[in-house]
């Protein structure tokens, strides 16, 4: 064992105040495995990963990190690390194999056991209702592009609230709707691999409506619920001070940072910046504007990097393109995301500026770097410093009186990183994917010390 040389930081969790929520975040498809056990139905990620060429090395989440069988071990490790809040998502097709209709009691049982085990060991569950794994049976009917998703989703949310709402109080309706609609229904690089505006625009509109409808159901069915939803967000910096680049940056900002929160606050879609969004009207019905509004108890913001954006005539609809971090001579993570801690501060500030946002939690932040396993240890100094530097910025925001009430590391163990497969490791805990052995990384040791 190498002796950890944990860089000093100067802050402990106590400096953020007694009421600050500290946790770790995960998602069902990325960790659970057991993809067809106990009557689980297929999800769009089971289908998407089964097609050659979609995922790095054609990897998939059939086993993932076998959380389905190892949840007790993982929760006990969280407990040993003084982690008090655990964010995980429910797999819709584990609960409803066909997306609608018959409930799979074995799926309900699994989540009951998981929730109960968390509570027995002093961990508060934070449940995400939708973290991208739509039941395949619903995709066969058009998925998020079909307006019927509103009814399917409402039925699913009601079932979850009735099954778990006596013990789960913290709920997040959607995880990063911009990513699952953009990557899944416009670019086709995530499940279900659909492309183009005709898929994307209705998917956006239906996700906006589900976001609010889901919130209303949780509030009506769960006593003392704390209801939120989560958004991906990145500081957008224009490539130069040329007016064309500034305009390009404002369009990217509207699309990446504003598209899903603003309708929920009654501000509508940011059509003045991205005029193609006006076409959402085609998919709108009377009452939709009002039904898109919901007063969330908290907003979860998920920040990793910043984007530098440049004008580009050939990019349809927005004439803007992201300049890759690798082309900019900056420090990057394995995802080719720039390490840029002020981005998290600026996002906290941006979301604070919205009237109607009551509480803000960082529901994801973390980084993938190459981890080297040496003598049963992983000395991941880059990740550790990344987390410390981002946390300094969270503290700066708090010192300035901005709302920020919690922070969840993405993620607990290494896991399946969507199209990138198992290559980028984001965990505080290293996983040997062959043996499923867990090894606490230096970043995990540091986080434990920070929380203790
Ligand atoms: C956002 C997503 O919610 C999560 O599923 C993903 O693994 C991380 N960011 C890292 O890319």
Short description:
The protein is built from 15 helices and 15 strands.
Keywords:
452 residues; alpha/beta; eight-stranded parallel beta barrel; three-stranded mixed β-sheet; 15 helices; 15 strands; 36% helix; binds 1-deoxynojirimycin
How many H/I helices?
15
CA-to-CA gap between the ends? 23 Å
- Report the mean per-residue pLDDT as an integer: 98
| Spans where pLDDT lies below 50 across 5 or more residues | none
β-sheet strand percentage: 15-25%
Cα-atom Rg, whole angstroms? 21 Å
Biggest beta sheet summary: 8 strands, parallel, barrel
Shape: globular
Q: What is the subunit arrangement here?
A: single chain
How many strand elements?
Answer: 15
* Percent helix: 25-40%
Give me the secondary-structure category: alpha/beta
- SSE sequence, one letter per element: EHHHEHHEHHEHHEEHHHEEEHEEEHEEEH
Bound molecules: 1-deoxynojirimycin
How do the strands and helices of this protein lay out in sequence?
Blueprint: E1 21-25, H1 28-31, H2 44-50, H3 67-80, E2 85-89, H4 92-95, H5 105-120, E3 124-130, H6 136-139, H7 149-164, E4 170-174, H8 177-185, H9 197-221, E5 226-232, E6 235-238, H10 243-258, H11 261-264, H12 288-291, E7 298-302, E8 306-311, E9 320-323, H13 342-352, E10 360-364, E11 373-374, E12 377-378, H14 381-399, E13 406-410, E14 429-432, E15 437-440, H15 442-451
Parallel strand pairs: 1-2, 1-13, 2-3, 3-4, 4-5, 5-7, 6-8, 7-10, 10-13
Antiparallel strand pairs: 8-9, 11-12, 14-15
Helix pairs in contact: 3-5, 7-9, 8-9, 13-14, 14-15
Bound molecules: 1-deoxynojirimycin.
């Amino acid at each position: 064992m190498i002796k950890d040389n944990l860089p000093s930081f100067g802050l402990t969790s106590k400096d953020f105040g007694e009421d600050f929520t500290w946790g770790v975040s995960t998602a069902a498809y990325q960790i659970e495995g057991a993809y067809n056990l106990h009557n689980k139905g297929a999800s769009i990620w089971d289908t998407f990963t089964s097609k050659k060429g979609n995922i790095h090395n054609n990897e998939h989440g059939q086993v993932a990190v076998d959380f389905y069988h190892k949840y007790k071990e993982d929760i006990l490790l969280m407990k040993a690390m003084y982690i008090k809040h655990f964010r995980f998502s429910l797999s819709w097709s584990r609960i409803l194999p066909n997306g609608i209709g018959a409930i799979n009691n074995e799926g309900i049982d699994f989540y009951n056991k998981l929730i109960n085990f968390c509570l027995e060991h002093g961990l508060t569950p934070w449940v995400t209702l939708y973290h991208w794994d739509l039941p395949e049976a619903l995709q066969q009917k058009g998925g998020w592009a079909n307006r019927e998703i509103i009814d399917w989703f409402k039925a699913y949310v009601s079932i979850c609230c009735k099954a778990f709402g006596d013990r789960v109080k913290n709920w997040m309706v959607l995880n990063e709707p911009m990513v699952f609609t953009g990557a899944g229904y416009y670019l086709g690089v995530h499940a279900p691999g659909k492309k183009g505006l005709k898929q994307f625009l209705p998917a956006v509109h239906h996700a906006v409506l589900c976001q609010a409808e889901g919130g209303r159901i949780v509030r009506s069915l769960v006593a003392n619920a704390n209801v939120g939803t989560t958004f991906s967000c990145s500081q957008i910096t224009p490539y130069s001070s040329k007016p064309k680049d500034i305009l390009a940056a404002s369009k990217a900002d509207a699309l990446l940072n504003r598209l899903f929160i603003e309708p929920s606050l009654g501000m509508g879609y940011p059509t003045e910046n991205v005029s193609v969004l006006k076409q959402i009207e085609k998919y709108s019905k009377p009452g939709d504007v009002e039904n898109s509004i919901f007063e969330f108890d908290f907003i979860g913001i998920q920040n990793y990097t910043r984007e530098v954006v440049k004008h580009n005539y050939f990019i349809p609809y927005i004439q803007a393109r992201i300049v890759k971090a690798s082309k900019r001579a900056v420090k990057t993570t394995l995802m080719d995301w720039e390490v840029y801690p002020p981005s998290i501060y600026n996002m906290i500030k941006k979301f604070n500026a919205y009237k109607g946002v009551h509480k803000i939690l960082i529901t994801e932040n973390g980084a993938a770097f190459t981890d080297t396993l040496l003598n049963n240890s992983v000395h991941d100094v880059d990740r550790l410093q990344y987390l410390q530097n981002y946390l300094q910025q969270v503290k700066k925001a708090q010192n300035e009186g901005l709302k920020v009430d919690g922070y969840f590391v993405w993620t607990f163990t290494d896991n399946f990183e969507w199209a990138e497969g198992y290559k980028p490791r984001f965990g505080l805990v290293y996983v040997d994917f062959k043996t499923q052995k867990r090894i606490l990384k230096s970043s995990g040791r540091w986080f434990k010390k920070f929380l203790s």
